[in-house]
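Support request, please re-run this one:
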Amino acid sequence: RPLDMVSVPKLEVLECRRFLSAPGNLFHVIGTSPHHWNDPYVVSVDDQVLVAGSQTNDPLNNDSAVDIYDAATGQWSTTQAPHVLPGMAVASINNYAIFAGGYSLTHSGSQRGSDVVGIYDAQTGQWTTAKLSIGRFDLAEATVGDLAIFAGGFMRMGGTSRRTNAVDIFNAATGRWSTSLLFQARGDITAATIGDKAIFVGGSFEEHGQASDVVDVYDGGTGDWSTATLSQARDQIAVGVAGNLAIFAGGQSYLEELPRQTNAVDIYNLQTNQWSSAAISDYRLVYSAVTVD
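Re-run finished. Output below.
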């Protein structure tokens, strides 16, 4: 999804068009990207930061240009990706940055998922392509070990919306792809990595977007999947990871198909492999989470 901030070696914060560092308590501008970006997609790999997206207020007016900042040299360059689409997932694993899926519009105006994957190798500066098992957008992504995992999402939006339980897994060590399935087909999933676990939480399912309480957990050590259940079904959940805890807070649930905000919190403890629940101070839909020492 579009990001406002990302951390890389020698860089503290990326803010849309500006890179900032923080000596003491002051920020100062250390660079400006070649293009103006609106709601950019940002991903860091090795000492490089890739910025892509729309250069207008129209999210569908994306082109394939990708600006790259090299923290080692302090220089910008521009490359051409195989595709840049709204609703795509971005991930970084080892020396690869991956742009997966996204959507385009049909003649009727509905959104149709793409199966195209663009893979950037930071060591060579070259792009290669692959295909998702099913074209889709707004898919969740998580990385664990050498694996980048792309799960769920929407195949089509408009008319009859269709969600999928498809999972595509890229192994950066071998360059090979494999597939799996979530327990339940859904979109708007929140994903997190903690230790050797990739966790895919909640989301929406069925045509009318009913919230899901399903949790799918991938164990990077064994390659096995397991499931758990949230204390309250919901989507658009915020997540933060602190120590051995992955904390999933707030979001949107539904009552008689009408959305409502929630203050529910579900906490996964990696050390005990147990779940617990709590509540935040207020009922909120849109959260941002950040982890500090």
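Residues 1-28 have pLDDT under 50 and may be disordered. The first strand starts at residue 13 and ends at 15.
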